[in-house]
Amino acid sequence: MALNQKRIAPPSDDRRWKLVDATMRRYGYSSQAVIETLHTIQEVFGNISAESLAYVSGSLNVPPSKVYGVATFYNHFNMAPLGEHVLSVCTGTACYVKGSGQVVDWIKEEYGLEPGQTTPDNKLSFMVARCVGACGLAPVIMLDGEVVGRLSVDEMKKRIKEWISYDK
Ligand code: FES
């Protein structure tokens, strides 16, 4: 990510996020920073949580599935458990103008989840991505890695409800 682009806020006021940010800054917020950033997160927090994956993904503009893939590929990383299912919503520009922000708001209302959070029953983790490289399909969501796009906001909600086959 170029330095003049707006960066996303860390998940909390915890000062340890400043150390995580310093690592990403050292690499100019480029996608090359994923491994080093995950190292820093593990050093300062002890493990890699869903919210830290979402933060790295948004800050470095790398799809959450890729960050998750890197984190799980190396045995060295100690993952905090993600939910059984992962729902990602792309909030990159192309998807945002087609209503993905409304989908994010709806998920907050409907399932009580902020990006990076997991339901208490560990069934569902929710993430946002900056662009998953499928802008032609905007708005795009990913249901456990399956790319779903070109739906209206209402159709998107219906699709998510069908996918989430358990009672809240
Ligand atoms: S902005 Fe959503 S896929 Fe590119």
TrEMBL record:
Cofactor: binding details: Binds 1 [2Fe-2S] cluster.
Keyword Translocase assigned: no
Organism: Leptolinea tardivitalis
Keywords: 2Fe-2S, Homeobox, Iron, Iron-sulfur, Metal-binding
Annotated binding of [2Fe-2S] cluster, by residue: 90, 95, 131, 135
Family statement drawn from the similarity comment of this UniProt entry: Belongs to the complex I 24 kDa subunit family.
InterPro entries in the cross-refs: NADP_DH_HndA-like (IPR028431), NuoE-like (IPR002023), NuoE_dom (IPR042128), NuoE_N (IPR041921), Thioredoxin-like_sf (IPR036249)
UniProt entry tagged with the keyword Heme: no
Protein name: Bidirectional hydrogenase complex protein HoxE
Superkingdom of the source species: Bacteria
GO molecular function, one term: oxidoreductase activity
